[in-house]
Amino acid sequence: MTEYRLSWSHGEAVVLSTAAVLADCRFDLPAGAFHPFARAPWMGTVDDPNIIGHLRELGGDFVCVPFGAGPAEPIGPRAWADLMTEPPPVPIHGPAGDAEWSIVEQTESSITLGLDYPENHLVRRLERTVSGHEGSPVLESELTIYPRRSGSISVGLHPILRLPEAPGRLELKADFEFGLVHPRLVGDGESQEFAGLDSVPSSDSSVDLSHLPLEMANFSVQLCGMTGPLRAIFLDQAMGIELDWDRAILPSLQIWYTDCGIDGAPWHGQYRGVGVEPIASAFDLNTAVSTQPNPINRRGVPTAVALNAGVPVHIRHRVSAFSVKD
């Protein structure tokens, strides 16, 4: 694993060759240094090759092509469970989230890494550029997908924000067409849909996802048809970020929340973070679910990216840090 360090007028960042993970990022704001991204406490200490690359080095942002992690068995309401006929992808989230990427180009404030996919894969190659925006507290990223042949595939970006210690002190703001609770958390016939982050159905009653941390260990939803960027405000610091991206390509946002809720290696009940993940996917299910008719794309929200042989697809996203004014 190789570390690549970036610096620009308003911050510093570290990008790793492993899964092209953004391992760390500091934004320099008038009020001080701001670290919005999560960082696993085990980073740099795990060398077990059986643990996927992006989990060995679980930092603040990486890319997933395809976007998907399973599950192994059908779960949730019948409309979802009936679609889960394929085994989980290996590796989860595709080669992008596991392999060692190679350097293409580097400057003081920018790094471009590339990864060739297996010869039988729909995708021929990925390139990922991460760069600080001179003159502002902004980190920009661009993923370029080079298709080998035409077809469709789920795609996702995977920023993860840190969680404050005190309940409710991270505020999330997002506008979307409709939201759905992850099928693994919903029984057949139970309520799955919601219209706002402040009232999300759960097995007990409802969850306020607009203010984190929650009084639960794990939760996950998809905000379908995002109509603007995500804003996340760390209330105790009066600092926040705006996450903006190519919503015409990745129309939804998955929120994956865990607060010391995952056991086993390398987690061991230690990890705290909230993934705010722009996606063209049906949750983090197998890409085979995302590329066929499903309860999300039947409502007009694409759950996969259409690739044309030889035509690159460019997907941009940016994280802009800001101070909250009184």
Explain the overall architecture.
The protein has 326 residues and is mainly beta. It has a single domain (3-323), classed as Beta-galactosidase, Chain A, domain 5, CATH 2.70.98. It is 4% helix and 41% strand. The protein contains three helices and 25 strands. β1 (3-8) and β2 (11-16) form a beta hairpin. 48% of the residues are buried.
Helical proportion, percent range: under 10%
Could you say how many structural domains there are in total? 1
Label the CATH architecture: Distorted Sandwich
Order of helices and strands: EEEEHEHEEEEEEEEEEEEEEEEEEHEE
Tell me the strand order in the biggest sheet.
Answer: 6-7-8-9-25-21-20-13-18
What is the CATH topology assignment? Beta-galactosidase, Chain A, domain 5
Structural class of the helix and strand makeup?
mainly beta
Q: N- to C-terminal separation?
A: 43 Å
Strand content: 35-45%
How many helical stretches? 3
Low-confidence stretches: none
Largest sheet: 9 strands, antiparallel
Rounded to an integer, what's the Rg over CA atoms?
19 Å
CATH class reads Mainly Beta
| Number of DSSP-assigned strands | 25
Based on CA inertia axes, which overall geometry fits?
A: globular
Q: How confident overall, as mean pLDDT? A: 96
